[in-house]
Specification:
Elements: H1 3-6, H2 33-49, H3 51-57, H4 62-70, H5 89-102, H6 104-117, H7 119-123, H8 126-139, E1 143-146, E2 154-159, E3 162-169, E4 180-187, E5 193-199, E6 205-207, E7 224-232, E8 239-240, E9 243-244, H9 253-282, H10 301-332, H11 341-373, H12 385-394, H13 400-413
Parallel strand pairs: 1-4, 2-4
Antiparallel strand pairs: 2-3, 3-7, 4-5, 6-7, 8-9
Length: 423
């Protein structure tokens, strides 16, 4: 992650004229969490207008990424000295949620970007951290990652003062819309894992263009082949004289991204409630055969009860997610050497609980809204299915049953989960 490794030019996406290009050109950059959330809401309001049409077109989200960059959201966590927002993870999690309310796919892209942009702080040396944060913040770069742990690791071989990454990953969120890609592999003949950040636009990174799933269709999460991508040994994150310097802090990547998941699940659910309730107010008809007939659907007691139940659950889920966001934000921004195994585990359990609630209540909501909008709302032209499809797709990322077990072990046995690729 030195200047030599990272200052390779990275080509930008082809321009695509959109009305939002200059939307914030003359606006001062937000300076408080509240202002950043207002900016995120503006982005969300733009995205939600044509989210269904863009989902069906299933094109690489070049314009959507440009929107995130124009709004300043890509560098929200970046240092102020390099033009970044200088905000905390607590704010970043809430921004992810707000953006996902407009488009779950773009909320995921932004959330994954934040995690990979923080990867240097998680595992790199102080010198590498400074280089990476200046690079991505000053250039407004978006991160992607070819790090799916369920696949075989990339193979890393030594060639003099260079490392050569090769292999294939089934999933690489961000894909070709990312400016920088995080690689992870195992040094040949050892069990040593190595992370490195490389420019995406190079011949050795070949995307399969095969992401065509039920939901989260605009996340560029298809396969990628890594063909002899070279980086200097000096770019191996966290290595000093070819030896890794471990910290418990290194393992925060998993709870941090699990809470990213939680927040874009919550955003998707909020989008579902807002979209469905707007339809109910304008298009749903009262039921004329119940014996307690109403003139308007909005007077129907079962609709009022239904929306009340769903929103109450979402508010409760947001409360636990916000608590988890505040707690992990404290340790993410604290000196790296201070984190203990116990504290890390307690935060992971809290995040597991938040994720469980977001999944179960979100899936209930994205299905229940059809009962509250009526049969005509099942028309493809209405597009309510996008919320269930998005949430159902990504909530399969790792089995929720194991998150339940983690919480149960904590409650019954006072045990915290041991760090792994999924805990």
């Amino acid at each position: 992650m030195t200047d030599t490794a990272l200052n390779t030019p990275v080509s930008s996406a082809a321009p695509d004229t959109r009305a939002f290009d200059d939307r914030w050109a003359d606006a001062p950059a937000p300076t408080t969490p509240e202002r950043w959330l207002e900016r995120a809401r503006e982005v969300s309001d733009i995205l939600i207008v044509d989210a269904v049409d863009r989902d069906r077109a299933n094109l690489a989200p070049q314009a959507e990424v440009r929107l995130l960059k124009a709004a300043g959201l890509v560098t929200l966590l970046g240092p102020l000295a390099h033009g970044g927002g200088g905000q905390s993870w607590e704010t970043a999690y809430q921004v992810i949620r707000v953006v996902a309310r407009g488009d779950g796919s773009i909320g995921q892209l932004l959330g994954y970007h934040y995690l990979w942009a923080w990867a240097a702080r998680l595992v790199a040396t102080d010198e590498q951290i400074l280089a990476v944060e200046e690079l991505y913040t000053a250039n407004n770069f978006l991160f992607g990652g070819a790090v799916n742990p369920r696949d075989s690791d990339l193979t890393v071989t030594e060639d003099g003062d260079e490392l050569v990454f090769s292999g294939r990953k089934s999933f690489s969120t961000g894909g070709q819309v990312a400016d920088l890609t995080v690689l992870e592999g195992v040094l040949n003949g050892t069990d040593t894992h190595i992370f490195a950040i490389v420019p995406t636009d190079q011949p050795g990174i070949v995307f399969g263009d095969d992401w065509d799933n039920l939901g989260q269709r605009l996340t560029e999460s298809g396969s990628v082949e890594i063909r002899d991508v070279r980086v200097p040994w000096a770019a191996a994150a966290g290595f000093v004289e070819k030896v890794f310097q471990p910290l418990i802090y290194n393992t925060l990547n998993v709870p941090a991204i699990q809470l990213v998941f939680t927040n874009f699940y919550l955003g998707i659910t909020q989008g579902a409630i807002e979209t469905a309730s707007a339809y109910t107010r304008t298009s749903t008809r009262a039921w004329p055969y119940g014996g307690d007939n109403k003139e308007r659907a909005t007077d129907e007691w079962y609709l009022l009860e239904g929306y009340g139940q769903l929103q109450s659950k979402l508010w409760a889920d947001e409360a636990i997610a916000d608590r988890a966001g505040a707690e992990i934000s404290l340790v993410l921004h604290a000196p790296r050497e201070e984190l203990t195994e116990r504290r890390r585990g307690e935060i992971a359990v809290l995040i597991a609980a938040a994720k469980l609630r977001a999944i179960e209540d979100g899936l209930e909501t994205t299905s229940k809204i059809y009962e509250l909008t009526g049969a005509r709302a099942s028309a493809n032209s209405v597009g309510l299915d996008i919320f269930w499809r998005n949430l159902r797709t990504h909530s399969l990322h790792d089995p929720a049953a194991y998150k339940k077990r983690e919480v149960g072990q904590y409650v019954l046995l006072n045990e915290v989960p041991k760090p792994s690729w999924y805990t």
